[in-house]
Design brief:
201 residues; alpha+beta; Alpha-D-Glucose-1,6-Bisphosphate, Chain A, domain 4; seven-stranded antiparallel sheet; 6 helices; 7 strands; 38% helix; 25% strand
Length: 201
Amino acid sequence: MKVDLRPDFDVTDASCKECTGKSLKEWSAVLDAASPANRREAIQYIYGEIGAKDAWWPTTVWVEHEKHKGVVRKDGRGEGYNICVTKTVAAPVSAVYAAFTGDELKNWFGASASFDEQGRVDDGDGNGGELLRVRKDKDLRFKWNTKGSEDESQVDVMFAEKAGKTGITLNHGRIQSRAEADGLRRAWGEAFDRLKKNLEA
């Protein structure tokens, strides 16, 4: 699973002003004055101000504002970016779960992908994680490392039966840069497309 560490837009004052009408610095002053109670409220506020069609700039503005203010969690890192990737596959939950934990992994995650007995998953391209929780046919949680990034993030994958099909929801959080978040969103999306194609073939 190759991850291209490239943001959808440049995260600069100039790019932000062109797309939203205000620079990142100007948005930071607006947010200081508005004093939103939490991340959700802040992003909704920015949505309303710029009439955004998607969450890219509202989320970016808020995360960059937190960085500017030095807001961190107990581990010393910011909340960062979160991405969500979903896919519905016409296959039973057991088959989809097995594709994440068995030999099928090589057919969609990477030709050299592996999932070992110690709970380490590796895509063969330098990206991978260590399992933190396993609930068969329900969910997986692992800490993740992206090639080219020094920061650790967290992945949660949930499986749910949907009228004979399986819904997969992947939440990938604590990503510290917009470039990594966008690269992972694209990479996971492409990987899930391959997974769906293989299981439905």
